[in-house]
Design goal:
helicase, Rossmann fold, 632 residues, 5 domains, 26 helices, alpha/beta, Arc Repressor Mutant, subunit A, 15% strand, helicase activity, nucleotide-binding, P-loop_NTPase, globular, seven-stranded parallel beta sheet, hydrolase
Length: 632
């Protein structure tokens, strides 16, 4: 008897019931229908494809742009006894070949692919011969040029429809405007429109937006008032360190995080924050994707995000436990001006894009007519330093080169060392007898890792060193010697981005760049910036403003954002502020900062004005920086 979706959910994930929309989406997939699911961050998107795929024969192919997230999901599935593998940039041809063979002839249930892998003829041909039950497209907004994070490799997903015409698509995203919703379905070739959408309203989030000259001071007051753990988003790597240092100097346990740190540092910092050893993490937008920490009480933006989609997703990392949480956006006039300045970096001219291509080819010493399908580690900072290029402008140029299929650049991600024996058991035993030095290492590998004769396995040199009493360096040398003697294949770890040439090198003056596409993207980005300004300036409820942007006509104010709170006290704010100051100071004299933090009514200028009036009227005394209420 076939198991029901609920039985699968209970057996492998231990849950007794589905979250909203999960069951409805799963039902559509089991009927073989193309489906688009719009679910908020932390809404349980992955179960929408994992559960039905476990009920069907064959393998589910999952497309995700985030290598770290792919690896986490594969690891979590394996812990539950479900066979899953991933193919991403940085793997060798042979690793990919073996992994794909296991998907065709083995018992693999989930194959995770980065979208760049679909450029490969090997991957396409093997998918054609697989028993595929579902294509799951995560972060599906990336396929639309009207999405906030358009990724050109996502356009290759149409090939999946050609390879397996009868297999349904499940597209999933947390952020999509009506225009993007339509575009996703068209790009993926849905036979009919089929959208399941959870409201973009987050009832437990109180959105706050403040124009503030002294953002650091305001940030500190917010953190002290809120309690709990939180995230602070800033513009660049340098700023992460400066803000974290400021918080530490003011007694707040904080740390910084950005993509320039090595993988061990990033994992250590992330783990400390996840387990509440660090209260606040100060990060660029490289942080947060795929991190499911439920008890985040605040997310503070110290700079204006590039789009409302990005803001909604980042702010949505607060309050996943459904308890009240506060996304707070602090900005000043210079931040507003900077948004338009950044627009120029996002859309460099055609000559600059051609020049970047020329420099990339020279960087790797690619000859004219050569280079097709070659893959290299790519250090963006080193590349920009060598050719004296602006980093942000160069990133944009690389994206347009990617869109026109000249090259592709994957994200930087940690890929552990991999290992596979290349001889059979008998040959390996002979080698152990003849080379006694390697015997303890070979035995440790066999005891620690299963399947080393059949496929590449992740390998930890530090653990092996500890087990056999050798140094990390000695283990690395021994593994390389085993490879030289063709006993095994050893691929050392890396955390570099990968750059792949999709075409043979041409003269950069003859390089075709789609200028019409660039112009349409620029016009779209200008629309996004105008939407951000509207969100900052309009006087309607913040939740309503966000919902309208995503196509929902909500009319009920949230009652808890900064605008709703201000509206509730409009007309008699000063009297209420005066009463609250009286209650607070009768209970305990305080300095100005503590008093302002404890007040819940009115904006800061009204609070200060009311406080001065009370002093002028002789109702409050100020001595040595401490305010107290005079009781008559």
């Amino acid at each position: 008897m076939e198991k029901t979706s609920l039985a699968i959910l209970k057996q492998y994930w231990g849950y007794d019931r589905f979250r909203p929309l999960q069951e409805e989406i799963i039902h559509e997939i089991l009927l073989g229908k193309d489906t688009l699911g719009l679910m908020p961050t932390g809404g349980g998107k992955s179960l929408c494809f994992q559960v039905p795929s476990m009920q069907m024969e064959g393998v589910c192919i999952v497309i995700s742009p985030l290598i770290a997230l792919m690896k986490d999901q594969v690891e979590n599935l394996r812990k539950r006894g479900i066979q899953a593998v991933a193919i991403y940039s940085g793997m060798t041809y042979r690793e990919i070949d073996i992994t794909l063979d296991n998907c065709i002839f083995g018992n693999i249930k989930f194959l995770y692919l980065s979208p760049e892998r679909l450029y490969s003829e090997l991957v396409q041909e093997r998918i054609r011969h697989m028993k595929v039950n579902l294509f799951a497209i995560d972060e599906a907004h990336c396929i639309s040029q009207w999405g906030y994070d358009f990724r050109p490799p996502y356009l290759e997903l149409t090939k999946l429809r050609e390879l397996q015409p009868k297999v349904p698509f499940l597209a999933l995203t947390a952020t999509a405007t009506p225009r993007v919703v339509q575009d996703i379905q068209e790009k993926l070739g849905f036979s009919e429109q089929n959208v399941f959408s959870k409201s973009f309203r987050r009832e437990n989030l109180a959105y706050m937006v403040f124009e503030e000259e002294n953002k650091m001071n305001r940030m500190l007051r917010v953190i002290k008032k809120m309690g709990g753990t939180g995230i602070i988003y800033v513009r660049n790597r340098k700023e992460t360190q400066e803000v974290a240092r400021y918080l530490l100097n003011h007694g707040v346990p904080a740390d910084f995080y950005h993509a320039g740190l090595n993988m061990q540092e990033r994992m250590k910092k992330q783990d400390a924050w996840t387990h509440n050893k660090t209260r606040v993490i100060v990060a660029t937008n490289a942080f947060g994707m795929g991190i499911d920490k439920p008890d985040v009480r605040f997310v503070i933006h110290l700079d204006i995000p590039d789009s409302l989609e990005a803001y909604y997703q980042e702010a949505g990392r607060a309050g996943r436990d459904e308890k009240k949480a506060f996304p707070v956006l602090l900005y000043d006039q210079s931040d507003r001006e900077r948004l338009w300045e950044n627009l120029e970096n996002d859309f460099p001219g055609i000559p600059f894009i051609q020049q970047v291509y020329h420099h990339v080819c020279n960087y790797y010493q690619i000859a004219y007519g050569a280079g097709k399908d070659q893959v290299f580690d790519f250090d963006l900072v080193d590349f920009c330093k060598r050719y004296k290029l602006e980093v942000l402008k160069t990133i944009s140029a690389l994206k347009f080169l990617e869109k026109d299929k000249w090259l592709t650049v994957s994200e930087a991600a940690y890929i552990p060392s991999r290992f596979k024996f290349e001889v059979d058991y008998q040959e390996l035993y002979k080698f152990q007898v003849q080379s006694a030095l390697f015997d303890p290492l070979i035995k440790a590998i066999q005891r620690s890792y299963g399947g080393t004769f059949d496929f590449f396995v992740p390998l930890n040199e530090f653990e092996l060193a500890k087990k056999i009493g050798k140094s990390y360096e000695d283990i690395g040398k021994m593994l390389k010697l085993m490879q030289q003697q063709e006993i095994a294949t050893y691929i050392p770890k890396t955390d570099s981005a990968q750059l792949q040439f999709l075409q043979a090198r041409v003269d950069y003056k003859n390089l075709y760049i789609d200028s019409q596409f660039i112009a349409s993207r620029r016009a779209f980005r200008e629309e996004q910036l105008k939407a951000i300004y509207q969100y900052l300036d309009e006087k309607v409820c913040r939740s309503i403003s966000l919902q309208r942007y995503f196509g929902e006509q909500e009319v009920e104010p949230c009652g808890q954002c900064d605008l709703c709170v201000t509206a509730a006290y409009k007309g008699d704010v000063s009297a209420k502020v005066e009463k609250e100051i009286q209650q607070i100071l009768i209970a305990q004299p305080l300095d100005i900062h503590e008093l302002m933090d404890r007040l819940t009514i009115g904006k800061e200028e009204i609070r200060i004005k009311t406080l001065r009036n009370l002093m002028d009227n002789g109702q409050i005394r100020l001595e040595n920086g401490i305010y107290s209420w005079i009781v008559f």
